[in-house]
Amino acid sequence: MKLIIAExxxxxxxxxxxxxxxxxxxxxxxxSGWIVSWCVGHLVSxxxxxxxxxxxxxxxxxxxxxxxxxxxxxxxPGKEEAYRNLRTLxxxxxxxxxxxACDAGREGELIFRLVYGMTGCCxxxxxxxxSSMEDSAIREGFQNLRPSSDYDALYHSALxxxxxxxxxxxxxxxxxxxxxxxxxxxxxxxTPTLAMLAEREQRIQDFQKEKYHHVRLQVNGAEALSxxxxxxxxxxxxxxxxxxxxxxxxxxxxxxxxxxxPKLYDLTTLQREANRILGYTAKQTLDYAQSxxxxxxxxxxxxxxxxxxxxxAETASVIVRLAARIAPFNGCASFFPDVLSLISDKDVSxxxxxxxxxxxxxxxxxxxxVGERNLFLLVCCKLLCAVAEPFTYEMVTxxxxxxxxxxxxxxxxxxxxGWREIDRLFRSFLKIDAESKESAELPxxxxxxxxxxxxxxxxxxxxxxxxxFTEDTxxxxxxxxxxxxxxxxxxxxxxxxxxxxxxxxxxxxxxGFVERKGKNLIPTKDGINLVSILPEALTSPMLTAEWEQxxxxxxxxxxxxxxxxxxxxxxxxxxxxxxxxxxxxxxxxFSPEKKIIGICPRCGKPVYEGKKNFACSDRTCSFVxxxxxxxxxxxKKELTxxxxxxxxxxxxxxxxxxxxxxxxxxYDAVVVMxxxxxxxxxxxxEFPNKKQ
Length: 692
Description:
The protein is 36% helix and 20% strand. The longest helix is centred in the N-terminal third of the chain and has 29 residues, at 152-180.
């Protein structure tokens, strides 16, 4: 009997179905010599710091750095039942072998190994490694199971990643939180990502717009442009010299160009384009892609490759034909796919590019949830565009002389739409505008042609500030970050991995360091301040870029895990040694901003809200409204900021649900403030239109 352990219940169900395992039980499927069960994502995680020593429950500088040796692991709360189920199945006497069918990647390997290790199981393990949940791919994968030991290096890479993130995250977060009296989440990927956002925001804030001008000629219905003039007087001089003067066409150049079809999607480019075209966040895109993968409609989404392998050529050709039958792509006039352009064995690592599967033939695509449907069509669009003909056009450039100055006009003549026709059909189907307007077609100018009269005018322009990051552009920046300092053959570059970048963005937002404004991602004041206090080692993308390079080398068996962890330990020790205290001014960086409630009736200064009161900002003034004043507590009410604001502005506020101890019931009334200048403010009640 073989026990198969998948990462998720839906994947286990697909595997069971592909293998003909139809008998279901509580927590597993069993039939024909197979048992198929599942984890629920990570079941086991490193213990928190307090589990090593109770004194770590409170955060103190003196306890840093925290360096567990060895690391201990614990069950993730709420997942005990799933773990007990797997442990029971592993220990069944009739189970002779276990198949690790968790996702084929670094994290999937870690999920299985930690569970396997915690159970104490010693039974032999084989590895299933597939990129698609189609029945045929699953069955083929089981015909090519490999020894688990083939992936030991990958496991050590994953374990090093997890330990290193724990050590840097726990110690750096506690260190700077203790120093600045505010919980400051620090991570080796999220912190440099935040730094990029803060640096872009600073450039936007520092931007000084500059005015410039062009002189424009209208020549036979086309517009010809001068060079750029920073001074209006120079543009005016050109305008004067061109007024009532003929313009001569001095040259016409025609250059045929081809825009090659785009490559297939890896996860990052899929997330980028789904954000730009469909408005999805990176997390939404990953969630939709994962759901489509589990429904067997998409190949494995957590990939960094944009090509297919040579053994997929025939399958890809069939999938292309099936995708071309789906609306709106069935509107293509002519289509001659070049499947070989998708193939590059050397550019595929663990998983090939994201493409639809053969299940496309049976699926009712247009009854999928709208988010999944649109994303699936986007992937189909990319596949069809990738095998289509190039977009071919002729670029025409005409130059004119007028008044001793040179003017240029450019136009584009489309020869063949090629892959762009497919993209246009997709955008039209979803009512999405084209991303850019094409250059207009120019009249048929000839060299030496003279135009006796042309209209000339000056146009005013301003330089534009840098644009805020969107998820599209931030993902691109994360992918490129630090790449210029990495060796050419480094497999992983940039911040994080395609599978983790979406989660990084969400963590920054959840921590209050970044906020979404429409499609834009804007760092908050706390986010900008956090970047300003951290050392460059934590804000530069080089740290995580170096980690990924070393982790990749470990996964290949080319580097020593212990040496990597020694380097991480020394990094953490040095971090604590170099940061012992901060200035009084620095400690104020993360103080909560005081909220102005109103104006003090005694001195005219602002009144701020505190934890227990609303007090005048002038310390020499004694005006204060207490939230738990006896007047309010006896009536089972607390003075709110809205009520305090009305009292300061109008001297009265309407309150509902005041408690009467005498009548044992609630009532509504108007509370009137009486400020006699004494230490405590007095109040009285009024009952408009009612007898007291």
